[in-house]
Prior knowledge:
Layout: H1 11-23, E1 28-32, H2 38-44, E2 53-58, H3 62-68, H4 73-78, H5 84-98, E3 102-108, E4 125-132, E5 135-142, H6 149-172
Parallel strand pairs: 1-2, 1-3
Antiparallel strand pairs: 3-4, 4-5
Helix pairs in contact: 1-6
Amino acid sequence: MASAFPPSSIRPLLKEVTSLLTSRNESISIAETAAGGIISASLLSVPGASKFYRGGLTLYTLESRIQFAGWTEENKKNYNGPNAEVVSGLAKNVRQRLGSTYCLCESGTAGPGGSGTTPNRKPDFVALAVASEDGVVTEETTTGTNGDREKNMVEFARLGLELLKRVLVEKAKGAKI
């Protein structure tokens, strides 16, 4: 019987990403919010994860971002939902704190409801970032799951790993990110 974890949509990405990281002696840290730990757990399911995984934080609440990811009360006061600026800052901070080559950050609105009227506060929205010493690559997108919380959590993880894979492949080609 095949294991239900990690999710089947993530498995091929895990092989590619972890192979690239391991072959280059590079490391990853994770800062995730709405994915709830799925990215970290998926990476840790790969045998030999200690060779590339430096750690991860599930920063679901704004308070956790203050305690563990360098946020201030000012960040909390000005928070207006997940966006490229938020994930970029979290990714840079967590990468520095954990000393990894890269940090993948995800923050989204999983659903079923949202907390505002702007697109980034509606279900299915996710902001993603990959930070490295060369800079940060960000992406904002929607999943189209109609606010299905569990599907969004897995899809946010998949989309994050997709972005990480693109960054790793481009880096292998010698591109600056």
